[in-house]
């Protein structure tokens, strides 16, 4: 897939083309199942690739830019390729630094500013809605949820609603038990079945937020949408809390400035994640 209306193909360079998968592999310095992205400076290009990369991430980037424009800044996607078992996503090289690398050098007002920007972006992201008759939980292309905590679980989904997803998620710790050994799980009551389904990044931590390198911190892009999709409305907070120190400042003080805490749901979430070994 090539997005011919993207800035890459609208370049003044005649006959500019995306490098082939073979050319990208040749530029990669790491040969394993999780190679780092290849950066091609003169093309302002970053290529994310490997067997763990999925086309849904590219579709997600296109969806966000198409619907929300600059309200939620993400890298512009130029196209993708599927070559054997590997997916290659060609996207804009965003020239910023991670929030994590600059965070300790920011003062309280600057940190508050960053959280305010994130709050506005998440509010905008929630404007993306499913059609009521076609609601589901899963990836943007109607496949199973791509969240990394499920990577060693039997593939299932998409799910027809919040309750089927909650039932499945809560059943995972008991999946190897015989029927007579299974018990009524008290944590299941902490997961509401009547909540909304929201479009969710599902990996919102400091390394996936790129900001300006100098001056007042401005968010340039939210990256790594490979786990994103449609999830229960509690999922964004639970995953953001999952990616940081349990009692750390980021979780206790700053995350609540851009995500409403879901403490009951997080208690059940944490219990299930530990029980299935997704640490």
UniProtKB/TrEMBL annotation:
<feature type="domain" description="Aminoglycoside phosphotransferase">
    <location>
        <begin position="69"/>
        <end position="260"/>
    </location>
</feature>
<dbReference type="InterPro" id="IPR011009">
    <property type="entry name" value="Kinase-like_dom_sf"/>
</dbReference>
<dbReference type="Pfam" id="PF01636">
    <property type="entry name" value="APH"/>
</dbReference>
<dbReference type="GO" id="GO:0016740">
    <property type="term" value="F:transferase activity"/>
</dbReference>
<dbReference type="InterPro" id="IPR051678">
    <property type="entry name" value="AGP_Transferase"/>
</dbReference>
<protein>
    <submittedName>
        <fullName>Phosphotransferase enzyme family protein</fullName>
    </submittedName>
</protein>
<dbReference type="InterPro" id="IPR002575">
    <property type="entry name" value="Aminoglycoside_PTrfase"/>
</dbReference>
<keyword id="KW-0808">Transferase</keyword>
């Amino acid at each position: 897939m090539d997005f011919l209306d993207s800035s890459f193909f609208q370049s003044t360079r005649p006959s500019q083309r995306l490098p082939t998968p073979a050319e990208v592999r040749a530029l990669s310095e790491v040969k394993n199942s999780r190679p780092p992205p290849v950066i091609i400076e003169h093309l302002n290009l970053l290529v994310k690739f490997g067997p763990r990369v999925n086309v849904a991430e590219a579709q997600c980037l296109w969806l966000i830019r198409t619907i929300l424009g600059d309200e939620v800044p993400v890298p512009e996607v130029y196209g993708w390729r599927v070559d054997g078992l590997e997916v290659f996503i060609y996207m804009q090289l965003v020239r910023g630094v991670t929030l994590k690398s600059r965070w300790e050098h920011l003062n309280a007002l600057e940190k508050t500013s960053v959280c305010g920007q994130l709050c506005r972006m998440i509010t905008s992201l929630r404007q993306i809605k499913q059609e009521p008759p076609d609601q589901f939980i899963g990836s943007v292309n109607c496949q199973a949820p791509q969240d990394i905590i499920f990577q060693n679980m039997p593939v299932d989904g998409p799910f027809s609603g919040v309750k089927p997803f909650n039932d499945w998620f809560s059943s995972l710790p008991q999946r190897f038990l015989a029927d007579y050994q299974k018990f009524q799980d008290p944590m299941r009551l902490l997961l509401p079945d009547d909540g909304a389904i929201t479009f969710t990044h599902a990996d919102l931590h400091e390394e996936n937020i790129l900001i300006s390198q100098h001056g007042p911190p401005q968010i340039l892009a939210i990256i790594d949408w490979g786990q994103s999709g449609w999830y229960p409305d509690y999922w964004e907070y639970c995953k953001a809390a999952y990616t940081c120190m349990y009692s750390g400042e980021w979780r206790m003080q700053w995350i609540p400035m851009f995500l409403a805490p879901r403490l009951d749901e997080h208690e059940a979430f944490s219990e299930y994640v530990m029980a299935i070994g997704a640490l």
